[in-house]
Amino acid sequence: MNLRVNIAGASGYAGGELLRLLADHPHFTVGLAAASSNSGELITALHPALQSYAGQRFVPADDTALGECDVLFTALPHGASAALVSAHPGIAKIVDLGADFRLTSSSDWQTYYGGSHAGTWTYGLPELPGARTDIAKSSRVANPGCYATALTLGIAPLLSAGLVDPQGIVVVAASGTSGAGRSAKVNLLGSEVMGSMSAYKVGGIHQHTPEVEENLNKISSSAVSLTFTPFLAPMSRGILAAITMRMKGDHDTEQLKSAFTSMYNGEPFIHVLDDQPATSSVYGSNNVHISVASDLRVGHAVVTVALDNLVKGAAGQAIQNANIMCGFAETSGLTGQGVTP
User: Fold this and answer.
1) Which of 9, 61, 107, 214 has the fewest CB atoms within 10 Å, i.e. is most exposed?
2) What's the whole-model pTM score?
3) Catalytic residue from among 10, 32, 99, 146
4) Mean pLDDT of 199-216
């Protein structure tokens, strides 16, 4: 079976990654790649690595034929997907890579994003308990945020096993500059980023904070709270997160690790390591590398997580969700092999 897929927001980094991965997908064929300000330009002018699309051009973002597909991927700025979806109500299946439909709380949406809350779709993190069944039955799926994917997957096993306190979880994480999108910003210039690291959205204001808490509240017996400090790292892609949680009792590293191997047993893209993960090892892949250690001196569990923010944190996970929605093997068109060095 071969299905037609269209992409809205194909000129951005996540959109380009969708094009790259879909070029070799055994069941999906890209029809239209839409862009707004880049409408009419050659795809290879913005994504020169994607020579399989040579001669093809971006169509306008409001092209009426955008809804003529089996699956639509929307890789648009936050707040833009809802309007597009409303304009094309007959689309069979949609995976939204933006934040429009991730949150269940309208007050959290207004606090962290502003404006009117568009509603809530099935949340597309397949490795969470029961998620695959929900995704498979859905025609509308909200793709998780990149940081939210890393943090949720790094916290969920210990929380589910009752080994850590759900309150006061501390996260420090760094992301590559592609996580901020393709729009020109002074703070993302090479001369600003190279040889430097800086924190941003400090003090609980990062928009993925309520998303992570909502995810974890579904598997925790009591309310979850976390403080999250993100850093901008001098690299184009990748996320590395360090998560510290107070343990309930004394648990050695092997006990903590068993919670991860139990929850993620058989998962094709999650790998629990003995060594520390590195962003270079997951570059270009849909993999998540996780390590856990027990700091018995202070009673903390420390989890480190690495993933590619453009693949498992965006386009790869979106395709993984679309595969499940359409009944294909969820690994179709995706790779678990990184490209280091």
Assistant:
1) 107
2) 0.95
3) 146
4) 94
